[in-house]
Design goal:
With 330 residues, this protein is α/β, with parallel strands linked by helices. It has a single domain, classed as P-loop containing nucleotide triphosphate hydrolases (Rossmann fold, 3-Layer(aba) Sandwich), CATH 3.40.50.300. The chain has ten helices and twelve strands. Helix 7 links the parallel strand 7 and strand 8. The radius of gyration is 21 Å and the shape is globular. The structure holds iron/sulfur cluster. The site of iron/sulfur cluster has 14 residues, from loops.
């Protein structure tokens, strides 16, 4: 059995929303509202959902790039939310992030070599600049870039190549966990596949654990061991990839799943069109926050928020359809 690398319990990240004449705090935007999951070493958790559902805030709250409001994040059993600056600095070496837009996170005035070298020197890796240069050249090769990239600037690269630079910088410090925040969303489909393959190769060779954030189930399908589906700051369904694809149970997951292309065009499947936009998280709908868009909505749904129900080992769904309390279990 694999060890748990990360245990997240009831994680909440709320942002105050100021309003009124005195600009005092009127309400809270519940960007992350009670997320729980365990991630085993060497596995990948795919986090999916539409924009604004709290996926990126979840990733950043785990790393404490954004301070969570409540809840627990344990990394190898150590509580991250109560760590002081010194401990957190050490932890940053273990947990890295890859951003959606690497260009925005790469200093345009620095050569690629010095961008990656900086990650090494910040964490005291390498005896001197000569040794660090050798390490950077190895890293460039590892991510499929040529040694000439060392002296070039970020703007000289394509989107896919820039993502490779972002990945090289993340793996430079030999982390255990990488949070990849929509790392392929801005890329062409053919390039997406190459970058996904690179993530998989690095996972195999370095034993990395990933949280892989995407708005599209088809992107996380191949890379994930487990998938969490998020809606308005909550995890509405969590299951192993195989269970989720075999038995998508939450009506929101079913709608996302219906948009995933099937390899065999003769197989006809119903496309569930989600009507309306994701509601404003600072003023979410009552009860089940998905109820205004749910085609299975019942009277109870607008009144009471559903509890998580384990419908099979490790497959958890937050929906009244599966809660025996309402006598409507399927
Ligand atoms: Fe739909 Fe009700 Fe389930 Fe929410 S609780 S997903 S509204 S059936």
């Amino acid at each position: 059995m694999k060890n748990a690398l990360l245990e997240v319990a009831d994680l909440k990240t709320y942002f105050p929303v100021k309003g009124g004449l005195l600009k005092n705090t009127k309400e809270y935007l519940k960007a992350v509202d009670g997320i729980s999951f365990t991630l085993e070493e060497g596995d990948t958790l795919g986090l999916v959902g539409e924009s604004g559902c709290g996926k990126s805030t979840t990733g950043r709250s785990i790393l404490r790039l954004i301070e969570p409001t409540e809840g627990s994040v344990k990394y190898r059993g150590a509580e991250v939310t109560s760590m002081g600056k010194k401990e957190l600095r050490k932890l940053r070496k273990e947990m890295q992030i890859v951003f959606q837009d690497p260009y925005a996170s790469l200093n345009p005035r620095k050569q690629v070599g010095s961008i990656i070298e900086e990650a090494l020197s910040t964490h005291g890796i390498g005896r001197d600049s000569n040794e660090r240069k050798g390490m950077v050249l190895d890293l460039l090769e590892k991510v499929g870039l040529n040694a000439t990239a060392y002296e070039r600037y970020p703007h000289e690269f394509s989107g896919g190549q820039r993502q490779r630079i972002g990945i090289a910088r993340a793996i430079a410090v030999n982390p255990s966990l990488i949070i990849a925040d929509e790392p392929v969303s801005a890329l062409d489909v053919s390039i997406q596949a190459q970058i996904l393959n690179l993530f998989q190769d690095l996972q195999d060779s370095m034993g990395l654990t990933y949280i892989f954030i995407a708005h599209d189930l088809s992107v996380v399908k191949h890379i994930s061991d487990k998938i969490g589906v998020m809606y308005l700051g909550r995890m509405v369904e969590l299951a192993s990839k195989d269970d989720l694809f075999a038995r998508p149970s939450h009506p929101y997951t079913q709608a996302l799943m219906s948009a995933v292309p099937v390899p065999d065009p003769t197989i006809k499947k119903e496309r569930i069109i989600l009507t309306g936009d994701v509601p404003n998280p600072s003023n979410p709908p009552t009860g089940c926050t998905f109820h205004p868009r749910c085609r299975s909505c019942m009277e109870i749904c607008a009144e009471i928020a559903p509890k998580p129900v384990e419908i099979s080992p490790g497959h958890v769904v937050s929906c009244h359809l599966y809660d025996p309390e309402y006598n409507c279990a399927t």
